[in-house]
Amino acid sequence: MTDEIEALREVSSILDGLPPEAVVRVLKWVSDKYKVDLTQIGSALSGGQSKMPPKATASDLPEYFNSAQAGTSAEKALVVAAWLQTVQGNSDFDSGSVNRELKNLGHQSSNITRDFDDLMARRPKLVVQTRKSGSTKQARKLYRVTHEGLVEIAKMRGEHA
To answer: The whole model's pTM is what?
Structure first.
C-alpha cells in the first residue's frame, strides 16, 4: 500500500502542472501501455459505483452556492470557482472573476488572493495555479479547481463522492 501511495503522490505532482489536454494524453498513453480500460476503473474499485466527484449541476450560481453552505471566505471562493469551471465551462479562471461573482452574491472577499493562497496551501491542494501573466507580485494568475477541490465541494453540498 505504501508503494501505491508514493506512486499516487508522484503522479499527482507531475500532472498538477500540465494543462488538461496534456493530462488526457498522458493518461491515454499510460492506459494503452498497461492495457487498462479507464472507463472501467471507477466501477471496478467501487463495486459498480463511480468514485468520480460530482459535477456541479445547479445551472444557477446562487442555488449552487447556497447548497454548499461554505463557512470560510476561502471555501466560498472555492464554491464559486468550481461553478465557473464546471458549469460555465471555464477550464481556467482568475480570482477577479470569482470575487465579482462573490460580490454579486453578497459575499465579496476582503482578500481574494489570500483565499486562493489558502486553497493552494492545503494538502491535498484544492486549487492549483495554471498560469501567471507578468512578473510582478500583482501579475494576473489563472487557477483551476482540482479533483480534490471538487470532492470537498461535494462534501459541503452533502453529496457523496
So the answer is: 0.64
